[in-house]
């Protein structure tokens, strides 16, 4: 006699699409493998952990290729195939490419850093934490329910705290980790409260169901739903380093090991912005009249404060190049917010969000390239001041030319065509949405940014002080600089490729 419980139990058993979840899963498995291997490898063979990590990240990135043939979803509700916890669509794949590619380049930079005895970084812990953070970052763009979204956000963030403060005996590194930790914990607490309010008012955590139910919330719960929306947005604003939640960025970037600063500037931003896009465009489109103006105001504030902060980093005052890149990343975050805000004012939200994704891809390549050259300079000058870049062309012509190209891309000037196209795409998103004032604010900030980008570029070609000294460049660092340089030049030759890849059929 069959039990009446059996059909119900069978209905709760879900089939897992292992191919869809392969990229973050492989990264997590490699992280565990590195952790176990670290227990048995002698100190002189710890370099194998770095090679294994690079191979694992490369394999995870290659696993995105079979997913290009169509959208795939798994962990879905029985009876509602559109309410899923994990979806591998075009948006997911583009962000996962950015995350895994950024983590791979960070790993190449890290191999050289870990070999330097002055850095005092434990190899096993470093690689495990980096891979764990990358696994969480790769999971986040595929998350389609609020619970998975928060879990992925914390899996990406918690290892990053430890990475920032991993440098033993370094007071500045510990202080940077503490600032980063406190700000991020605050953001998480605010986000969790917002998510709990949204769940209480709608009765679901799935983004598609939230989008359907939240416009029809009962009057008694309407205030609760509005509060939940606002708190959720505030939490993600912390993660994106939007002003006024940016205060941790400069000190954290300067105090962290340089590869981790590069990782936070690209992968950390990808995590924050992909989560923000999912919550607003997918989960809360009916509240566009709330988050649209808020994000537009944040965009202007963020780009202005970031660019003015970078403008103050003058070479004559021996400011750190990494600190300038930190302030620059805050300014770039403002540009990334513009299309998301614009999506609230247009019927073609997908195209507007595509501009943010395309800009993020461009920014990821050239910013990682700039950090790679900074890592090269930092091998000889640990302080990595802007004055250390004077006459770099005489010491290393190729590195100087590539850094100049990366800076021109960030400024949006030829021959950095990909940077120009990305800025035009963001500018067009604001204009098409009828936000002329936002487009004007962006144009003013682009002009402000030209000054410090061009000032740094000119410094590379000035006469060096003293005799130029050539330095041997390790193979992993050479690979990172070459890879970012080739990608930036190739994309500048065909910028429409990025715009078409990132803008079509995201959701």
TrEMBL record:
Q: How does it assemble?
A: NDH-1 is composed of 14 different subunits. Subunits NuoA, H, J, K, L, M, N constitute the membrane sector of the complex.
Which InterPro entries does UniProt cross-reference here?
NADH-Q_OxRdtase_suN/2, ND/Mrp_TM
Q: Which family does it belong to?
A: Belongs to the complex I subunit 2 family.
Q: Per the UniProt record, which residue ranges are transmembrane?
A: 20-41, 48-68, 91-111, 123-140, 146-166, 178-200, 229-249, 261-284, 290-312, 324-345, 357-377, 398-422, 434-454
Q: Where in the cell is it found?
A: Cell membrane; Endomembrane system; Membrane
Name the job this protein performs. NDH-1 shuttles electrons from NADH, via FMN and iron-sulfur (Fe-S) centers, to quinones in the respiratory chain. The immediate electron acceptor for the enzyme in this species is believed to be a menaquinone. Couples the redox reaction to proton translocation (for every two electrons transferred, four hydrogen ions are translocated across the cytoplasmic membrane), and thus conserves the redox energy in a proton gradient.
Protein name from the UniProt record: NADH-quinone oxidoreductase subunit N
Q: What UniProt keywords apply to this chain's record, in alphabetical order? A: Cell membrane, Membrane, NAD, Quinone, Translocase, Transmembrane, Transmembrane helix, Transport
Residue ranges constituting the NADH:quinone oxidoreductase/Mrp antiporter transmembrane domain according to the UniProt record: 143-448
Which organism is this protein's natural source? Streptomyces actuosus
Enumerate the catalysed reactions.
a quinone + NADH + 5 H(+)(in) = a quinol + NAD(+) + 4 H(+)(out)
Specify the protein's topology with respect to the membrane.
Answer: Multi-pass membrane protein
Instruction: Output the HAMAP family linked to this UniProt entry.
Output: NDH1_NuoN_1
* Top-level taxon of the source organism: Bacteria
Q: According to the UniProt record, what class of enzyme is this? A: translocase
Q: What is its EC number?
A: 7.1.1.-
């Amino acid at each position: 006699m069959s039990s009446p419980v059996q059909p119900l139990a069978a209905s709760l058993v879900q089939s897992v699409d292992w191919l869809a979840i392969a990229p973050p899963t492989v990264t997590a498995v490699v992280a565990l493998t590195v952790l176990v291997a670290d227990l048995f490898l002698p100190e002189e063979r710890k370099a194998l952990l770095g090679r294994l990590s690079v191979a694992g990240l490369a394999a995870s990135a290659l696993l995105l290729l079979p997913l290009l043939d169509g959208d795939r979803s798994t962990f879905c509700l029985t009876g509602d195939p559109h309410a899923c916890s994990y979806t591998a669509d075009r948006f997911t794949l583009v962000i996962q490419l950015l995350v895994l590619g950024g983590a791979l380049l960070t790993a190449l930079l890290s191999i050289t850093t870990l070999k330097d005895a002055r850095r005092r970084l434990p190899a096993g812990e470093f690689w495990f934490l980096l891979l764990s953070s990358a696994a969480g970052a790769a999971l986040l763009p595929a998350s389609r329910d609020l619970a998975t979204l928060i879990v992925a956000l914390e899996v990406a963030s918690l290892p990053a705290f430890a990475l920032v403060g991993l440098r033993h005996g370094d007071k500045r590194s510990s202080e940077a980790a503490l600032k980063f930790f406190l700000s991020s914990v605050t953001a998480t607490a605010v986000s969790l409260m917002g998510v709990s309010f949204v769940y209480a008012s709608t009765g679901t955590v799935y983004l598609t169901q939230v989008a359907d139910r939240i416009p029809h919330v009962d009057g008694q719960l309407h205030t609760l739903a509005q509060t939940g929306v606002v708190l959720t947005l505030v939490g993600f604003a912390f993660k994106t380093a939007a002003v006024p939640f940016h205060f941790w960025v400069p000190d954290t970037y300067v105090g962290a090991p340089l590869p981790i600063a590069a990782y936070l500037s690209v992968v950390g931003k990808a995590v924050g912005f992909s989560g923000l896009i999912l919550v607003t465009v997918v989960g809360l489109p009916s509240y566009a009249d709330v988050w649209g103006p808020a994000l537009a105001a944040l965009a202007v504030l963020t780009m202005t404060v970031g660019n003015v902060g970078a403008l103050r980093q003058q070479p004559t005052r021996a400011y750190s190049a990494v600190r300038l890149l930190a302030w620059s990343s805050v300014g770039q975050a403002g540009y990334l917010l513009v299309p998301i805000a614009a999506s609230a004012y247009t019927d073609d939200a997908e195209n507007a969000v595509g501009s943010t994704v395309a800009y993020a891809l461009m920014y990821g390549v050239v910013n990682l390239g700039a950090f790679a050259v900074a890592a090269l300079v930092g091998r000889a000058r640990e302080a990595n001041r802007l004055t250390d870049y004077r006459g770099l062309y005489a010491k290393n012509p190729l590195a100087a030319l590539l850094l100049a190209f990366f800076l021109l891309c960030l400024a949006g000037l030829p021959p950095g065509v990909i940077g120009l196209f990305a800025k035009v795409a963001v500018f067009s998103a604001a204009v098409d949405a009828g936000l002329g004032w936002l487009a004007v604010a962006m144009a003013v900030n682009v002009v402000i940014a030209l000054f410090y980008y061009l000032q740094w570029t000119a410094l590379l070609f000035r006469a060096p002080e003293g005799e130029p000294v050539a330095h041997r460049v390790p193979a992993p660092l050479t690979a990172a600089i070459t890879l970012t340089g080739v990608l930036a030049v190739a994309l500048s030759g065909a910028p429409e490729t990025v715009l078409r890849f990132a803008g079509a059929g995201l959701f």
